[in-house]
Design the sequence.
């Protein structure tokens, strides 16, 4: 196994072990999801709401829940003064890869939970399940890549809490607009091959943002 | 034994509106030791961070050679170790798990040892934990350790990869007499096989080093 992959998996395992012991992020995220979906349920009441609006509400839940958790990966290392241990022991590419893997696992687990609850509570119907899952998968990949590099940037700043939404929002607008549209079309039954242009934008965005993250991270991490 | 050399050329470090030190040059090699001295806030830790490759100098360069061959930056991870008050080990992991994590990152990934041997690893970690007197507490989370125990664990962390260069920044922090004795044992061992650099204001620490750099001379 290459050194980068091996080191990344070690960092991922360390973060997972640490998270399972402290539940630093998981507990707050589960509560956040429950509260958000409950508020949506109370706001919707007995109204019949179409998938156009429900998809927007679903992505509001996904975006705020995940962004709340994703920002913690690097902030925790800085706040607990453990980042030097990683800097002394691992190269920057492996650190970013390890953190990305951890954030991907966290986000996909959380999204499974959000979508499951959302379907039960709002009676959200998905006609083209394949297209819906592809959109969610690629959309989340882009969301995680962008959020992880922004988390690394803000972990060095003093006003971490306010800086995170300020930086993420403009960077994520193209992704959010496209993924909401793609998810909505899939949920109302548009066939997957007709979602081609949306999926192409999502894939391109994810590739560009992931490459940019790897190019930038060394400069953020090393000084 | 490989010969490792550190050559610092005209190092300067400044932050906006604040020059820390200027034109600092020195050279040292395997089996030599240097103390970095100076008053509080004079820039000792800044120099140590530059040597550990944690921050970059504003001017000048640090070059590390192994048998006259310049080591690329990515190889330095496996050669340099640091103990200092400005970092912590992972609180939620046990002492053993912390050392295991660092061993896997630094030793198993190094050129010398690309295949991780579990028994060799456990033997090494066990021996170090015994040396710093934490073997009995090896499975307790670090958050339950006292500050002196955490410092002793950092001593074990700093030598787990048998570093060529060991940087000690205020190594006595929180240590009792027994802890200081352990620290000197590790420092003496390092002097026999590598380079030892100690940033300190303690006279006793200065005495174990052959050379000294007073950072106040480079203002």
Sequence:
């Amino acid at each position: 196994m290459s050194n980068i992959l091996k080191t990344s998996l070690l960092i991922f395992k360390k973060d997972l072990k640490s998270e399972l012991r402290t539940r630093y992020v998981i507990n707050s995220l589960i509560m956040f999801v429950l509260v958000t979906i409950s508020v949506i349920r109370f706001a919707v009441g007995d109204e019949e709401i179409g998938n156009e609006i429900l998809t927007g509400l679903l992505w509001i839940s996904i975006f705020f829940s995940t962004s709340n958790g994703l920002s913690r990966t690097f902030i925790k290392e800085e706040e607990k003064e453990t980042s030097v241990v990683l800097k002394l022991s691992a190269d920057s590419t492996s650190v970013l890869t390890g953190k990305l893997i951890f954030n991907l696992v966290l986000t996909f687990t959380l999204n499974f939970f959000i979508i499951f609850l959302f379907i039960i509570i709002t009676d959200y119907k998905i006609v083209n399940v394949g297209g819906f899952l592809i959109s969610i998968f690629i959309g989340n990949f882009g969301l995680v890549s962008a959020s992880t590099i922004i988390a690394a940037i803000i972990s060095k700043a003093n006003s971490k809490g306010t800086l995170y939404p300020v930086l993420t929002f403009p960077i994520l607008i193209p992704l959010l607009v496209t993924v909401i549209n793609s998810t909505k079309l899939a949920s109302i039954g548009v066939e997957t091959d007709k979602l081609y242009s949306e999926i192409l934008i999502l894939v391109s965005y994810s590739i560009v943002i992931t490459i940019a993250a790897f190019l930038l991270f060394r400069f953020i991490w090393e000084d | 034994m490989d010969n490792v050399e550190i050559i610092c050329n005209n190092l300067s470090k400044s932050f906006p509106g604040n020059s820390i030190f200027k034109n600092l040059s020195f050279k040292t090699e395997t089996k030599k030791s240097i103390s970095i001295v100076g008053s509080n806030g004079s820039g000792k830790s800044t120099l140590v961070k530059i040597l550990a490759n944690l921050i970059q100098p504003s001017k000048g360069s640090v070059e590390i050679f192994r048998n006259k061959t310049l080591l690329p930056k990515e190889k330095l991870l496996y050669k340099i170790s640091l103990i200092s008050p400005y970092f912590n080990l992972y609180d939620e992991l046990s002492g053993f798990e912390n050392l295991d994590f660092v061993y896997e990152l630094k030793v198993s990934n190094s050129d010398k040892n690309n295949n991780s041997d579990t028994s060799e690893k456990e033997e090494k970690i066990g021996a170090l934990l015994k040396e710093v007197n934490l073997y009995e507490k090896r499975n307790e989370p670090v958050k339950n350790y006292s500050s002196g125990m955490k410092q002793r664990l950092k001593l074990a962390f700093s030598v787990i990869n048998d570093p060529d260069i060991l940087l000690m920044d205020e190594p006595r922090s929180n240590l009792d007499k027994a802890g200081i004795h352990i620290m000197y044992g590790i420092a003496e061992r390092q002097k026999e096989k590598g380079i030892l650099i100690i940033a300190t204001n303690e006279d006793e620490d200065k005495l174990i080093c052959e050379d000294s750099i007073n950072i106040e001379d480079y203002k």
